[in-house]
UniProtKB/TrEMBL annotation:
PANTHER family: ABC TRANSPORTER ATP-BINDING PROTEIN (PTHR11795:SF442), BRANCHED-CHAIN AMINO ACID TRANSPORT SYSTEM PERMEASE PROTEIN LIVH (PTHR11795). Belongs to the binding-protein-dependent transport system permease family. LivHM subfamily. It comes from the Bacteria. Keywords: Amino-acid transport, Cell membrane, Membrane, Transmembrane, Transmembrane helix, Transport. InterPro entries: ABC_transp_permease, BCAA_transport_permease. The keyword Cell membrane applies. It comes from Micromonospora maritima. It is a multi-pass membrane protein. The lineage of its organism: Bacteria, Bacillati, Actinomycetota, Actinomycetes, Micromonosporales. Its main location: membrane. The keyword Lipid metabolism does not apply. The chain crosses the membrane at residues 6-27, 34-53, 65-89, 101-121, 141-165, 194-217, 229-256, 263-284. This is Branched-chain amino acid ABC transporter permease.
Length: 296
């Protein structure tokens, strides 16, 4: 029983990490119709900015309020980079899918190279609060606090995103744009501002994933964003493009499947099962768990 509880909660922690990355991806694709392969760069920027701030920014640190300041700095850095990418590289390429893919893939590779050139290719120890290294007893299982932190953060982000989409003007514009972008434009609403806002939100969520992922893994490395981005794309497709709630459902399914299969099976089998789940969803429900059927 203890093992099942531990696997379930660590699986939910991994799911929370996937959701933080996937939520922004889903919104960006749903509204702007952009497959952003550079999304992992925002995660890397957030992780390294938090790592740098913890040791250099006045008021920031690795514990207490200082850690909150360091994470806030990382989130802000990720959001600013995302806005810059949208304004400079993506905005001129809307409705040009092939060029978008080429630019974002190139930016992803260039971003990893830049991080390596700046801070080296080797993983660096991440400044973590002392309490995040401890465990908490849950139903007899000793659960790492870093995983519980991820779960809490993902729940807060999910609630904030849903509240923003439901009760704010720009949230309503984004929801309407996901459903029918042409109709929103025909009503005289400038969706370009919404595009930029969605990129900022996605960049901030990915940067938060980078910062908390550093706490979870204990290190930060230039290629960390790329490896997480693969599973984030799987989560987005399974959950349904443009659906934040669908991404949450899919992240939970993927995280739990990985943890349980990797533990009870052989190492790496969980990843294979995740790909199998993706194939099944694409065959039986191509629009995803929470996606809507496209009508001609």
């Amino acid at each position: 029983m203890n093992t099942v509880v531990l696997l379930a909660l660590t699986g939910l922690g991994l799911a929370a990490l996937y959701f933080l990355v996937a939520s922004g991806l889903s919104l960006v694709f749903g509204l702007a119709d952009v497959l952003n392969f550079a999304h992992g760069l925002f995660l890397g920027v957030g992780a390294y900015a938090t790592w740098w701030a913890a040791g250099n920014l006045p008021g920031a640190g690795s514990d207490g309020l200082g850690f909150v300041v360091a994470v806030a700095f990382g989130v802000l850095a990720g959001a600013l980079v995302a806005v810059l990418v949208e304004l400079v590289l993506i905005r001129p390429l809307y409705s040009r899918t092939i060029e978008q893919v080429l630019v974002t893939v190139g930016l992803s590779l260039a971003g990893v190279a830049l991080l390596q050139a700046t801070w080296g290719a080797d993983p660096r120890p991440f400044p973590r609060p002392d309490w995040s290294r401890d465990v908490t007893a849950v139903l007899g299982a000793q659960v790492p606090n870093a995983g519980l932190l991820l779960i809490v953060a993902a729940v807060v982000v999910l609630g904030a995103l849903l509240a923003f989409l439901r009760w704010t003007r720009y949230g309503l514009i984004i929801r309407a744009g996901v459903e029918n972008r042409e109709m929103v434009t025909a009503l005289g609403i400038d969706v370009r501002k919404a595009f930029t806002l969605v990129f900022a939100i996605g960049g901030a969520a990915a940067a938060l994933a980078g910062a908390l992922g550093g706490v979870y893994f204990g290190t930060v490395s230039p290629g960390q964003g790329g490896s997480l981005l693969i599973f984030a794309f799987i989560v987005v497709v399974i959950g349904g493009m443009g659906s934040v709630v669908g991404s949450a459902y899919a992240a939970v399914a993927v995280g739990l499947l990985q943890q349980f299969v990797n533990y009870y099976g052989t190492s790496g089998l969980g990843d294979l099962c995740v790909v199998g789940l993706l194939a099944v969803v694409l065959l039986l429900r191509p629009q995803g768990l929470a996606g809507k059927v496209a009508h001609a």
